[in-house]
Amino acid sequence: MSHTTTSDPSGLVAGFAVVDTELAIVAACDAPLVQGALLNYLLSLAGEADIVCGWAFGGLQPFAAVYRPAVCFAPFRNRVEAGQLRLVDAFEGLRVRVVEEPELRRFDADLLSYADTNTPEALAELERRL
User: Fold this and answer.
1) Most buried residue among 45, 67, 105, 130 by CB atoms closer than 10 A?
2) Superfamily of domain 2-129 in the CATH hierarchy
3) Tens-place pLDDT, residues 91-129
């Protein structure tokens, strides 16, 4: 099973430009098993954080995460405009609440929220697990 740990922030910039809510959940389109219990938990941790995301499989998981669009928009846009296209690098200078893997597993035991299906092999593996 593959797990997304890096991505281009330009899609989030486009979304943040039109979102008019205080918080936004960002999920990957190739991760079909995002668990509602995990998202609710991450939302409950937002407090004063600009981003709430998990740490699993050895890295930050920027999808199945919570963002404060009004705060994240400008720094993310600046990164895109500068050609700095590693999403987690755009977290620099923002208040990030990282949720460690054991805590994530309380709400998503198999971490299915981070399992992507962007290859036939990954989809087959996920189907076998289900």
Assistant:
1) 67
2) Spore Coat Polysaccharide Biosynthesis Protein SpsA; Chain A (3.90.550.10)
3) 999 999 999 999 999 999 999 999 888 888 988 887 887
